[in-house]
Design a protein that fits this description.
2 domains; 24% strand; 7-stranded mixed sheet; 339 residues; Beta-Lactamase; 42% helix
Length: 339
């Protein structure tokens, strides 16, 4: 509204709209676009405003004139009020080198204590330091401002994920190995496809957190008939946890397909995920694969990838190389997982 309470400005309920056509334009703008109009006579210290400004601020319409303008200023959000007054005074002095302006401020609506965003647009007349009039309009732009904030958060999230994915792909290129170009290509392709499935799952969730069951279904779809899954009291995954868990499951399944239970007909994997106090425990037990004579001396790329993801999740890993099959026990901090 830009009439400083220190100036003792008064408020009039009416606004001279001139001709009948002008009055009709104002009526349409008020009814269809929610615009309120104001004019400040800085010489006389008088502010005129259309009545709908009262409802924007949650103030009762007094139905009389003059009215002190301080109730409007008192509705300003405490974090914006001082800035708004300081900016207004600076514009009067011409310190910001402008005659026209458009500002947004937060207010606390008086009738329901809800926070709203009000946009002021106007033009100042007179030389800097000797302003005579301000003419402008105001509107409630809360929904627009909130939509802009959501879009900004979405763009930040997309950028963050893109940078993370690029870092992961670079790490996969560096870590992946193969006895031949084809082996290297297949290993890298499988890991990149796992990454792609994770992104699809996150996008499909539309802001809802993914469950470990959804991740298991995505990563073990080709082996579900040979997998016994049990999930007990496990909280949904944080977005940051989906990718590490998916990549761990992918590497375990790939190893089982090449060397373990999934490499033979009749081989099976038991997968149990359960919450235990401050941890989430993931147990992977293979049976029916080739007998294990001894723990391998060298660890492959898959093991390096698993370890890297465990570090991201502040987890721990235990391997049990039994003759009947590999056993893997993973523990994750529940706060990193999803609580």
């Amino acid at each position: 509204m830009h009439a400083s309470p220190q100036e003792g400005a008064v408020l009039s309920a009416g606004l001279d709209t001139g001709t009948q056509a002008g009055r009709e334009r104002v009526r349409l703008a008020i009814e269809n676009f929610g615009l309120a109009f104001f004019e400040t006579d800085l010489v006389a210290g008088q502010l005129t405003v259309t009545p709908n400004a009262y409802s924007m601020f949650g103030l009762p319409y007094p139905g009389r004139s003059p009215v002190n303008s301080s109730p409007f200023w008192e509705c300003y959000h405490p974090d914006d009020k001082e800035w708004a007054q300081r900016t207004f005074e600076a514009d009067l002095r011409g310190e910001r080198g402008r005659d026209s302006y458009c500002e947004r401020v937060r207010i606390i609506r008086r009738n329901d204590n809800r926070q709203r965003r009000i946009e002021f647009s106007g033009r100042m007349f007179g030389r800097p330091g000797e302003r005579t009039h301000i003419v402008g309009m105001l509107r409630d732009v809360t929904e627009i401002a909130e939509a802009e904030e959501r879009q900004e958060l979405l763009l930040r999230d997309v950028n963050h994920r893109a940078n993370n994915n690029l870092a992961v792909v670079q790490a996969l290129i560096r870590l992946s190995r193969g006895k031949s170009v084809m082996d290297y290509r297949d290993a890298l392709e499988g890991r990149v496809l796992s990454l792609a499935r994770t992104q699809t799952l996150l996008q499909r969730s539309r802001g809802q957190r993914a469950t470990v069951t959804e991740v298991i279904d995505a990563e073990l779809s080709a082996y579900r008939a040979a997998t016994d899954v049990r999930v007990s009291r496990v909280p949904p995954l944080r977005n940051e946890a989906v990718q590490p868990i998916a990549m761990i499951l992918h590497e375990l399944a790939t190893n089982a397909y090449r060397h373990g239970a999934f490499s033979r007909p009749g081989g099976r994997v038991g997968l149990e995920v359960a919450a235990q106090r401050s941890d989430v425990v993931l147990a992977w037990v293979e049976r029916g694969g080739p007998p294990i004579e001894a723990a391998p001396i060298e660890r492959g790329t898959g093991f390096s990838v698993i370890q890297a993801q465990i570090r991201r999740m502040h987890g721990s890993l235990e391997l049990d190389w039994q003759r009947a099959g590999l056993g893997v026990l993973l523990r994750f901090d529940r706060k990193k997982w999803g609580d």
